[in-house]
Amino acid sequence: MFHNAALKLTLWYLAIVMALSIGCSVALYHVSSGDLTRNNHRQATFFNGFLGPTDFSDYNRLRENQLDEDLGHLRTNLIFFNFLVLVGGGAASYALARRTLRPIEDSLEAQTRFTADASHELRTPLTAMQTEIEVALRDKAITKNQAIKLLVSNLEEVAKLKALADGLLKLASEDSNGVIKEPVPIKEVVSEAIARNTKSASAKKISIKQNIGNHMASGDLQSLVELLNILLDNAIKYSPEGNEVKINSSQKDKFVQLSVSDKGQGIKASELPRIFDRFYRAEISRNKDQANGYGLGLAIAKKIVELHDGTIEVKSAPGKGSVFTVALPTA
Ligand code: ADP
């Protein structure tokens, strides 16, 4: 599809280049042949006036032949020039067409991959539910307890589907909405994000320590809360029970730095470059039952950071823990 589009675009570019080149060549030929003919006539008039009535027919024929020859040369040169423009312009047009289409091709490829990944993630809980329901329906002697167990299990799958749909929605809305930036107190961002995570932290007996200054970032409060919520949620999710998670803030040049550190499972160096990709989950997280997720959190976090013209970095070592640091422009 893109190959055909590139060829079509090449032909359009080439048609424009050739129309210009041929147009200029015709104009140049017209002007030059006019000049040469005028010169020729001027010479004839000069000789006639200077030497008086003499028979110049041979000389005139010679000059006419020379004029024809000069014009012939000019035509050959212009045709050769246009041939070079055709070959060079064709190659340049194709390179330009490929370059023009590359971003569209990349984004379509990313879209297709995203749809395939999302469908795959949706299928998994749906298939689990379908199998359980089918098995239960075939069992004529199903007890009330078994039916309740089935409903509880189905409810878990529904909760997973809802979390996935929420993640996809957030990603789509961060993708399409810009942010309206205003001065945001970092202390407010941190306290709102902590409030969202107190339940899960206390369930794992994890304490959240904070050391936050009176920094002001330029951004959208709710998006920044969502960003910190993702980092905090991960820090809790990927830490063993009874651990500690720290949130620090500092000022560096024109940026507020906000870091979330944990002493949890950490991330392998080979997996670090991929954790911000949509649907990517480190191997260890995919294997563990207790850490639910779809690999969308950090992709959303990265999107929010980009919308705020900030940066996000991670330092991590397996078994030792991770530090995620976000830098946001100050207000
Ligand atoms: P999810 O947590 O839903 O799997 P994320 O996009 O938030 O998706 O994270 C992607 C992956 O990065 C996780 O699956 C996990 O393997 C790894 N990860 C993120 N944060 C941490 C952390 N604090 N400690 C260890 N691994 C982490």
Q: Please state roughly what percent of the residues sit in beta strands, choosing from under 5%, 5-15%, 15-25%, 25-35%, 35-45% or over 45%.
A: 5-15%
Count every helix, treating DSSP H or I runs of 4 or more residues as helices. 7
Distance between the termini: 47 Å
Structural class: alpha+beta
Small ligands present: adenosine-5'-diphosphate
Within the largest sheet, what's the order of strands? 2-4-5-7-6
Describe it.
The chain has 331 residues and is of the alpha+beta class. It has two domains: 1-177, no CATH class; 179-329, Histidine kinase-like ATPase, C-terminal domain (Heat Shock Protein 90, 2-Layer Sandwich). It is built from seven helices and seven strands; from the N terminus they run αααβαββαββααββ. The protein has helices at 2-51, 57-138, 144-176, 186-203, 221-237, 283-287, 297-307; strands spanning 182-185, 207-211, 216-219, 244-252, 255-262, 311-317, 321-329. The strands form two sheets. The protein has a five-stranded mixed β-sheet, covered by helices on one side. Strands 1-3 form a two-stranded antiparallel ribbon. Helix 2 packs antiparallel against helix 3, helix 4 runs parallel beside helix 5 and helix 5 (221-237) runs antiparallel to helix 7 (297-307). It starts with a helix and ends with a strand. The structure holds adenosine-5'-diphosphate. The site of adenosine-5'-diphosphate has 22 residues, from helix 5 and helix 7.
